[in-house]
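Long-time lurker. I teach an intro course on protein structure, and each term I like to show students one example going from raw sequence to a predicted 3D structure in C-alpha cell notation. This year I'd like something fresh instead of my usual example. Would anyone be willing to generate the C-alpha cells for the chain below so I can use it in lecture? Attribution to the forum is fine with me.
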Amino acid sequence: MEPLRKDKPGLGLFLLMTAVYFASYFGLKYGVFGGEMPVLLNILLIVVCLGLAFFVQRRGKRAN
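-- Reply from a regular --
Happy to contribute to a lecture. Here you go:
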C-alpha cells in the first residue's frame, strides 16, 4: 500500500471544488442561457467550469 501523501487535498477542498463546479455549470446553463445551448458552447462551458474548480483547488493548497 502507498503511504498517505500530505500534499493531497482533503475532503473539504474536494467538496468545495465539486460545489463550485456544479453551481457554476448549472447556474450558467439554466440561469443565464435558459438551458438552450449549442453543443460546442456546452462543451466550452464544461471546460471553463472545470478550470474554475481547479483554480479553487490551487488556492486551497496554498492556504494550507
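Some talking points for your students: The radius of gyration is 15 Å. The chain has a mean pLDDT of 77.
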